[in-house]
Design goal:
mainly alpha, Helicase, Ruva Protein, domain 3, two-stranded antiparallel ribbon, 6 helices, about 10% strand, flat
């Protein structure tokens, strides 16, 4: 049996105040609600659980290692994008077997590196394959990957 925990919501005091600028215009056009804005001010705060968990600070060695790794990933991605732009490597091959440096890269950025693929064509291709604009290459499902590869071969 699940126990439900009752949570109290913050108390909010609201008041209507006139907007500046276009408020008179909208009121004159017969939209009086657009001439007012709802102003909320918090009067209380909600505290769930206990103190918030904080991330332990990193040592200088850990920070330098993370920085070096991030730079390696950036250099590898830049090299791969240059190879895609020059035609030395095919995008279908990269998508079928993505290297580790591309797992967290945005698919949209990679498609924009391909010749003859501008923002409009990339948007259309992603929409045809039912892929979100902010999808990473590592986050592609098998169906999405297969549809995109099929689309690139035609």
């Amino acid at each position: 049996m699940r126990v439900r925990r009752r949570v109290s919501l913050p108390k909010v005091r609201c008041r209507l105040r006139p907007l500046r600028g276009w408020s008179g215009f909208w009121h004159a056009q017969g939209f009086p609600g657009l001439g007012l804005a709802l102003s909320a001010r918090r009067t209380g705060a909600v505290q769930l659980g206990g103190p918030t968990a904080s991330v332990p600070p990193r040592s200088p060695e850990q920070r330098l290692f993370a920085l070096a790794k991030a730079n390696e990933v950036r250099v590898a991605r830049a090299r791969l994008k240059r190879d895609l732009a020059s035609g030395r490597i095919e995008l279908a091959h990269v998508l079928s077997e993505p290297p580790p440096c591309l797992q967290t890269a945005k698919l949209r950025d990679l498609l924009l590196a391909v010749p003859r693929f501008g923002p409009a064509r990339v948007k259309r291709a992603l929409a045809n394959c039912r892929i979100a604009d902010n999808k990473t290459i590592g986050g592609l499902s098998d169906r999405q990957r297969a549809e995109l590869i099929r689309l690139l071969h035609h």
